[in-house]
Amino acid sequence: MATTTDQQLVLARPRAPRRPAARRNNFELYSWMFMRISGMALVILVLGHLLIMNILDGGVHRINWGFVAGRWASPFWRLWDLLMLWLAQLHGGNGLRTVINDYARKDATRFWLKMALYVSMVLIVSLGTLVIFTFDPNITN
Asked: Which terms does the record give in the GO molecular function aspect (predicted)?
Protein backbone atom coordinates (compact mmCIF):
# COMPACT_ATOMS: atom_id res chain seq x y z
CA MET A 1 0.00 0.00 0.00
CA ALA A 2 1.43 3.32 -1.06
CA THR A 3 1.56 6.25 1.34
CA THR A 4 1.14 9.92 0.54
CA THR A 5 4.88 10.43 0.65
CA ASP A 6 5.31 7.68 -1.94
CA GLN A 7 2.78 9.31 -4.25
CA GLN A 8 4.19 12.59 -5.34
CA LEU A 9 1.28 14.39 -6.91
CA VAL A 10 2.33 17.08 -9.28
CA LEU A 11 -0.41 19.65 -9.69
CA ALA A 12 -0.23 22.53 -12.08
CA ARG A 13 -0.10 25.79 -10.19
CA PRO A 14 -2.70 28.21 -11.52
CA ARG A 15 -1.30 31.58 -12.57
CA ALA A 16 2.23 30.19 -12.40
CA PRO A 17 4.54 31.64 -15.03
CA ARG A 18 5.05 29.35 -18.00
CA ARG A 19 8.62 30.50 -18.40
CA PRO A 20 11.11 31.87 -15.91
CA ALA A 21 11.19 35.62 -15.54
CA ALA A 22 14.00 37.15 -17.56
CA ARG A 23 14.34 40.07 -15.19
CA ARG A 24 13.00 41.03 -11.82
CA ASN A 25 11.12 44.29 -11.50
CA ASN A 26 8.08 45.62 -9.71
CA PHE A 27 5.87 46.25 -12.75
CA GLU A 28 3.12 43.91 -11.59
CA LEU A 29 3.14 45.46 -8.10
CA TYR A 30 2.83 48.96 -9.57
CA SER A 31 0.15 47.70 -11.95
CA TRP A 32 -1.81 46.24 -9.03
CA MET A 33 -1.48 49.49 -7.05
CA PHE A 34 -2.55 51.54 -10.09
CA MET A 35 -5.70 49.43 -10.44
CA ARG A 36 -6.70 50.14 -6.83
CA ILE A 37 -5.95 53.88 -6.94
CA SER A 38 -7.44 54.47 -10.39
CA GLY A 39 -10.51 52.45 -9.42
CA MET A 40 -11.16 54.73 -6.43
CA ALA A 41 -10.60 57.85 -8.55
CA LEU A 42 -12.90 56.50 -11.29
CA VAL A 43 -15.70 55.90 -8.80
CA ILE A 44 -15.62 59.59 -7.88
CA LEU A 45 -15.22 60.80 -11.47
CA VAL A 46 -17.90 58.56 -12.98
CA LEU A 47 -20.46 59.05 -10.22
CA GLY A 48 -19.93 62.81 -10.44
CA HIS A 49 -20.33 62.64 -14.21
CA LEU A 50 -23.53 60.59 -13.96
CA LEU A 51 -24.97 62.88 -11.29
CA ILE A 52 -24.32 66.03 -13.30
CA MET A 53 -25.20 64.68 -16.74
CA ASN A 54 -28.17 62.43 -15.97
CA ILE A 55 -29.82 63.47 -12.72
CA LEU A 56 -29.43 67.19 -11.92
CA ASP A 57 -31.24 70.04 -13.71
CA GLY A 58 -33.54 68.08 -15.98
CA GLY A 59 -31.36 65.08 -16.73
CA VAL A 60 -30.46 63.92 -20.21
CA HIS A 61 -33.15 66.02 -21.93
CA ARG A 62 -31.03 69.16 -21.59
CA ILE A 63 -27.88 67.69 -23.14
CA ASN A 64 -27.20 69.21 -26.55
CA TRP A 65 -24.47 71.14 -28.35
CA GLY A 66 -25.00 74.22 -26.19
CA PHE A 67 -24.77 72.25 -22.96
CA VAL A 68 -21.48 70.61 -23.98
CA ALA A 69 -20.11 73.93 -25.26
CA GLY A 70 -20.99 75.62 -21.97
CA ARG A 71 -19.54 72.82 -19.91
CA TRP A 72 -16.29 72.60 -21.86
CA ALA A 73 -15.84 76.37 -21.74
CA SER A 74 -14.49 75.68 -18.25
CA PRO A 75 -11.00 74.15 -18.00
CA PHE A 76 -12.19 72.31 -14.87
CA TRP A 77 -14.73 70.22 -16.81
CA ARG A 78 -12.30 69.55 -19.64
CA LEU A 79 -9.77 68.29 -17.10
CA TRP A 80 -12.50 66.21 -15.38
CA ASP A 81 -13.45 64.53 -18.66
CA LEU A 82 -9.81 64.11 -19.69
CA LEU A 83 -8.95 62.40 -16.38
CA MET A 84 -12.00 60.17 -16.70
CA LEU A 85 -11.03 59.19 -20.25
CA TRP A 86 -7.38 58.47 -19.46
CA LEU A 87 -8.01 56.63 -16.19
CA ALA A 88 -10.84 54.54 -17.63
CA GLN A 89 -8.78 53.54 -20.67
CA LEU A 90 -5.63 52.72 -18.67
CA HIS A 91 -7.59 50.92 -15.95
CA GLY A 92 -9.55 48.81 -18.43
CA GLY A 93 -6.50 48.15 -20.59
CA ASN A 94 -4.47 47.04 -17.59
CA GLY A 95 -7.26 44.67 -16.54
CA LEU A 96 -7.51 43.22 -20.04
CA ARG A 97 -3.71 42.84 -20.17
CA THR A 98 -3.96 40.72 -17.01
CA VAL A 99 -6.72 38.58 -18.55
CA ILE A 100 -4.61 38.07 -21.69
CA ASN A 101 -1.63 37.02 -19.56
CA ASP A 102 -3.78 34.58 -17.59
CA TYR A 103 -5.61 32.90 -20.46
CA ALA A 104 -3.51 33.14 -23.63
CA ARG A 105 -1.52 29.91 -23.77
CA LYS A 106 0.83 30.54 -26.67
CA ASP A 107 3.45 33.28 -26.60
CA ALA A 108 2.55 34.40 -30.13
CA THR A 109 -1.14 34.65 -29.28
CA ARG A 110 -0.35 36.59 -26.13
CA PHE A 111 1.90 38.95 -28.09
CA TRP A 112 -0.64 39.72 -30.83
CA LEU A 113 -3.53 40.14 -28.41
CA LYS A 114 -1.47 42.61 -26.38
CA MET A 115 -0.43 44.49 -29.52
CA ALA A 116 -4.07 44.82 -30.58
CA LEU A 117 -4.92 46.00 -27.07
CA TYR A 118 -2.13 48.59 -26.98
CA VAL A 119 -2.92 49.94 -30.45
CA SER A 120 -6.61 50.29 -29.61
CA MET A 121 -5.77 52.00 -26.32
CA VAL A 122 -3.50 54.53 -28.01
CA LEU A 123 -6.08 55.25 -30.73
CA ILE A 124 -8.96 55.74 -28.30
CA VAL A 125 -6.98 57.92 -25.88
CA SER A 126 -5.54 59.96 -28.75
CA LEU A 127 -8.88 60.54 -30.42
CA GLY A 128 -10.64 61.37 -27.14
CA THR A 129 -7.89 63.76 -26.07
CA LEU A 130 -7.95 65.42 -29.49
CA VAL A 131 -11.71 65.99 -29.23
CA ILE A 132 -11.47 67.42 -25.71
CA PHE A 133 -8.67 69.85 -26.62
CA THR A 134 -9.89 70.90 -30.07
CA PHE A 135 -13.62 71.25 -29.36
CA ASP A 136 -14.77 74.64 -30.68
CA PRO A 137 -18.01 75.91 -29.11
CA ASN A 138 -18.16 78.77 -31.62
CA ILE A 139 -18.38 76.64 -34.75
CA THR A 140 -20.58 78.08 -37.46
CA ASN A 141 -22.74 76.12 -39.84
From this structure: metal ion binding
